[in-house]
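Reproducibility note. Readers wishing to regenerate the assembly model reported in the main text can use the exact inputs given here. Chain order matters: entities are listed in the order in which they were concatenated for prediction.
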Amino acid sequence: MALDKIGIAKRIAQELQNGWYVNLGIGIPTLVANYIPKDIEVEFQSENGVLGMGPFPFDGEEDADLINAGKQTITTLPGAAFFDSAESFAMIRGQHVQLTVLGAMEVSQNGDIANWKIPGKMVKGMGGAMDLVASADNIIVAMMHSNKAGESKLLKNCTLPLTGVGCVKKIVTELAVLAIIDGAFHLIERAPGVSVEEIIAKTEGRLVVPEFVPEMQL
Amino acid sequence: MNKVVSNVTDALIGIEDGMTIMLGGFGLCGIPENSIGELVRKGTKRLTCISNNAGVDGFGLGLLLETKQIKKMISSYVGENDEFERQMLSGELEVDLIPQGSLAERCRAGGAGIPAFYTPAGFGTEIAEGKEVRIYNGKPHILEEALTADFAIVKAWKGDTAGNLVYKAAARNFNPLMAMAGKITIAEVEELLPAGALDPNEIHTPGIFVQRIFQGKEFEKRIEQRTVRKRD
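Running the prediction on these inputs yields the following structure tokens for the assembly.
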């Protein structure tokens, strides 16, 4: 069965390594923070100027001055730090953040990503996404395999305005874990009960399928 | 040096039609509420506003959009604002969208006397069109130019009469960078203290960057996304 959003977040959480600083985008990526493996320590960076983000505050303890990049009220954990936006992006551009997880509208087989604009329809701006994808060594995209119209989001070439070129290394969807290597999607794992045929049918870009594709262990 | 002005009206003297102003804040967090209210009252028109976001309908810079006082917005993210979207799609409002890290660094550079810098952000995208490209460490970078403004308006938690500022939590964001980049920088603070009351070790924006400071009133500090968890 295809994963739900929580399943995608749980699978991405398995990619976290002890000692990493991690930037989580808005949407499914935010959920990853709820499923950190018990035996490791990671710290979350929010590009509006917070390191060491904690859970949402208890009802009545919200502070308008303490929000994350999604403008949600948050708390901090012991060891947290605040800083300005230039210093925040120094952490990002300077590759002091080990992993970036973000959503996407389209990803191409060479690792291009589009997630900020639909011409004539939606223009919200790129926020920090262009800085994040241009600099991060390790980018995981969390998204659904197809869009609402049922069209594949894993393409030969992106059709929407790009956020970054050749930067995505790994994708986790409700159907599969895929790596991008040498201009092709490589099928690494499939969601429990999902067939390789379904993944092939729903992937427009070049897909390399090994003889044996293990199921995700969640 | 005493930078104190008695109220928001005096603080904003000299802001005229057609000027470029920077306004600190991220979303509605750390925005100069008093000064935005005064700009609405003054009715200053054709403003170019440099701010990470454009407020929401009915609050923050959304107020200046409703009164059509903004000619151009320079921002990184402008969602959650219907009036903004309407004015942009109808062509009433010019919009320059900039990657957030580049926007921050362009303000910092403007205040630091660095006219331009290379960044990898946006290479290969439409925001790189017309910009110089150079390869450093095997990777393409684009040339981004510094930003300055006729006035920068920032919001701080505490300030002293010498213009030194301390910000609270995530309300710091763009404020220290814009404070550096204004030809005239105005600071509105929640608590205005005598010089000497703030520990020099803990000042975020040194007073040299601030020309005018005033005690703000009745901060609403609206929360954009109230997210909480239940007590066990």
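We highlight two features of this model. The longest helix of chain B spans residues 100-112. Chain B touches chain A through 58 residues (CB under 8 Å).
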